[in-house]
Amino acid sequence: MPDAPTGPARRAPAARDARARAAALVRACHTGPTVVVTTLCTALAVALDAPAGTVLLVLGVVLAGQLSIGWSNDWLDAARDQAVGRADKPVVAGAVTPRELRTAALVALAASVVLSVPTGAAALLAHATAVTMGWAYNLGLKSTAASWLPYAVAFALFPAFVVLAGPDDAVPAGWLLAVGALLGVGAHLANVLPDLEDDAATGVRGLPHRWGRRVTGVLAPAVLGTAVVVAVAGPPAPPGAASVVVGVVAVAVALAAGTAGLLRERSRWPFRLAMVVAALCVVALLVGGARGAAV
């Protein structure tokens, strides 16, 4: 009887297995939103001239929190995604198990809390509340008429966390919180558009599902466009030429997206253009150098 393989020959399949599992976890963390929110918060910290150590802390805290939200979403939605045949989901494809996603989500959640301790009590509370809102959405608020609320609160608190994590005793300006809340609500409305039918088939009845595709397709870019206007006009200092250009372009794209949503409700263009407006909102914040973000 031949001996069982040992040494490198035995370790190679295990290494490939580990790499495949890691890749599946990356796909299951909702990579797009995780990267966007983490990048926005980190860039805002840089724009506020935060020390390098604070910038790294912001990056680590926000990344851990976003990973926990993404993984908990795929863990809690595993049965629902299986029911509608979401083969794009790693847990449905069998690349990762719900138990592994649960473990990863809880570890990331704990890491986000531990990493935020050096940022101070106020910043820790702001970020912990934002992440709690993400988990609350995953745990059931997504199926209620209040599905927009976790997005509004969380996206307002993410920039608030960045300001509060700074070395000064600054607090976030009201206009910054308003931009975050509007960006969150608009992102929620737009993000749901591609999955309305799959969601409805498994009993998810959030606010966009109750409004329907046409109304949601018009309102998503409208809310995001309003966020851009507030980002440009909200700060006390006059906007620069670059900020004005970004604002004008964003409003034009928002109008095009709303028109597409009104006339062609089954088209993917309302979603695509709404995402462009959301990106321009982030650009408006950063081009303005986050002027007046802290008071």
UniProtKB/TrEMBL annotation:
The source's domain of life comes to: Bacteria
Secretion signal span? none
Write out the entry's keywords from A to Z: Membrane, Transmembrane, Transmembrane helix
Primary location: membrane
How does it sit in the bilayer? Multi-pass membrane protein
Keyword Membrane included in the entry's annotation? yes
Q: Quote the InterPro entries the UniProt record gives.
A: UbiA_prenyltransferase, UbiA_sf
Task: Give the transmembrane ranges.
Answer: 106-136, 148-167, 173-194, 215-234, 240-263, 275-294
Q: Pfam families in the record, alphabetically?
A: UbiA (PF01040)
**Claim: Signal is one of the keywords in the record:** no
Location(s) in or outside the cell: Membrane
Under what name is this protein listed?
UbiA family prenyltransferase
**Taxonomic lineage of the native organism:** Bacteria, Bacillati, Actinomycetota, Actinomycetes, Micrococcales
